[in-house]
Amino acid sequence: MKVLLKVLVISLAFLLLAACGVADGGKVTARDVLKNNEDADILMYNGFIYNNVTNLDWFQEDNDRYTKGEHLGDIKKTTSSSFGFRNFYATLLPEGTGIYSNNEDKEGVGMILVEVDGEVLYYMQLLEG
Known about the structure:
By secondary structure, the chain is α+β, with helices and mostly antiparallel strands. The chain has one domain: Metal Binding Protein, Guanine Nucleotide Exchange Factor, Chain A (Beta Complex). The protein has helices at about 1-25, 30-35, 55-60, and strands spanning about 40-45, 50, 70-75, 75-80, 90, 100, 110-115, 120-125.
């Protein structure tokens, strides 16, 4: 009986681990990012994680091509926990911060913008790679 219980527990553990690997559909998760950098400035929109690239050197030369487009929604919750990280959650942006598409892409895929205290910040979609 003890052997059967052990086999059952081990099998259940493997099933849970396997399910975790595909549950996110191959997308980068908040947990992935925060595991590597607990101070990361990220948000989730439309099931994807976006990272603040505003002050990165390589982006500074290219950021003038993006301008604020349509309003996509507002940050609902600020949290540093990756558990239950959902759409319109952010790690650093305050609740109520507006999220906008960019002028090149109405859906907000790839790059979205936010406005905090009159300053526009740029967030790039993180892709599995």
